[in-house]
Amino acid sequence: MTLSLDAAAQNLLFRDARTANAFTDEPVTDEQIQAVYDLVKYAPTAYNQQPLRIVLVRSPEARERLVNRMNEGNRAKTAAAPLVAVLAADNEFHEHLPVQFPAFPQAKDVLFGERPAREASAAFNAALQVGYFILGVRAAGLAAGPMTGFDAEAIDKEFFPDGEHSVLAVVNIGKPGENAWRERGPRLAYDEVVSVV
Amino acid sequence: MTLSLDAAAQNLLFRDARTANAFTDEPVTDEQIQAVYDLVKYAPTAYNQQPLRIVLVRSPEARERLVNRMNEGNRAKTAAAPLVAVLAADNEFHEHLPVQFPAFPQAKDVLFGERPAREASAAFNAALQVGYFILGVRAAGLAAGPMTGFDAEAIDKEFFPDGEHSVLAVVNIGKPGENAWRERGPRLAYDEVVSVV
């Protein structure tokens, strides 16, 4: 009674959804990813900066380049997933700010003129968007398998040769296959996470 | 047709929901925040590390301490919101790992024994959880007003005197009031965000 979100949506996004390590052969289309993006793009970022960039790794040759840069334990599932997305922060997101945040067009230079401030903001806000994207994949009836075990420097070099992006996560996407997940781990109790002052 | 999530849920979480800067006087109860947590706790983090910690700032004296550490432009709304939550990464999350990730009980020391690796992982994974939390607030029929404009060092000192937490966001929570938001900013086009290789 305390939540407005209906039970089916709670289950789809949170309660029944699981991180998948194995997938069926059913392809994931660009239309599905477009629908995911057209939903999660509305979730908030600071100054509407939207620093997340997504590379869909579709060609066998690009998939191989990626798999070789994943940690050992992530290689087989990254090679086998119907679709793999590389999620990165664009450290030059500020170029879009005059259009994306017209209320304060000077933000581009005043707040984000210096690279360290820009990188920190891109890392945090793109991470928010990684969270939104994972839930968006689930909203499309698909399972996500987000991974952070990889050689980040090598992926940045290989997939973002402009030197202006920082990979945050690699996400396998598809319909969950047989034995797609292990038993769900426990969650911290409310009192371990939330305090009142 | 491409999304499994029903339209009402899409609207509640993404399409109609907005970052609020003004709220009604209606209180936000601990039961509501508990319901939010009991939903979003299921969303994934690496090694099930769950580094997000939440401080609900309820007492007038704590609210004043917080407001004084917000940037000028965030003070009035932080003072007036029915509830304010300080969201931080717990840089000692690894103490929970043997229980939370029993598949690899050595992760606590092998992966996260060193503080820099631990802080980086806590910052990224807690940021994912900030994203989940914002959507969870919306799932409860409430509006969130997330802010990153504050003196982070001062908030860490004031609200986390153990020196083991890093504030990531401060979130105003309540029912949206009159003129709660400005016009929604544009969003980047699909082709500006997503590429295929």
Written description of the protein model:
Two copies of one chain form a homodimer. Chain A has 197 residues and is an alpha+beta fold. In chain A, 42% of the residues lie in helices and 16% in strands. Chain A is built from nine helices and five strands, in the order H-H-E-H-H-E-H-H-H-E-H-E-H-E. Chain A has helices spanning 7-15, 30-40, 60-67, 72-80, 97-100, 107-110, 115-139, 152-159, 190-193, and strands spanning 52-57, 83-90, 143-147, 165-174, 194-196. The first copy, chain A, has a four-stranded antiparallel sheet. In chain A, helix 1 (7-15) crosses helix 7 (115-139), helix 2 (30-40) crosses helix 7 (115-139) and helix 3 (60-67) packs antiparallel against helix 4 (72-80). The longest helix of chain A has 25 residues, at 115-139. Chain A is globular and about 50 Å long. The two termini of chain A are 26 Å apart. The model of chain A has no long low-confidence stretch (mean pLDDT 97). Strand 1 of chain A pairs parallel with strand 5 (194-196) of chain B.
How far do the termini of chain A sit from each other?
A: 26 Å
- Give the class of chain A from helix and strand content and strand pairing: alpha+beta
Tell the overall outline of chain A.
globular
What portion of the residues of chain A fall into strands of 2 or more residues?
15-25%
Oligomer: homodimer
Reported for the largest beta sheet of chain A, the result is: 4 strands, antiparallel
User: Biggest sheet of chain A, strands in spatial order?
Assistant: 1-2-4-3
Average pLDDT level of chain A: 97
Rg of Cα set of chain A: 18 Å
